[in-house]
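For the sake of transparency, this paper describes our internal protein records without simplification. Because each token names a local backbone shape, the row as a whole describes the fold. One such record is reproduced below, unchanged from the form in which we store it:
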Amino acid sequence: MITHDIVHDLRAMAANSEQFTKNEVVEMLQEAADAIEADRKVLEKVRAGIMDALGHLEKIPGQRIRQSWNGNGGSQKS
């Protein structure tokens, strides 16, 4: 995930751009781009997991889902 340090450094560069060399700015932008790409990949995996879980939920009859949510573990109460 994009760290607080990268965000802080980018904001500092934006506020005081004359204090940084072009190479420093390019390096920080490359780090930010790498972090964004890593975040995108993680979020893609999370989304795929959620979609997979939803697919499994659709296969479970509604009564069983409600019982599981009520803490019955899917068993019928008498």
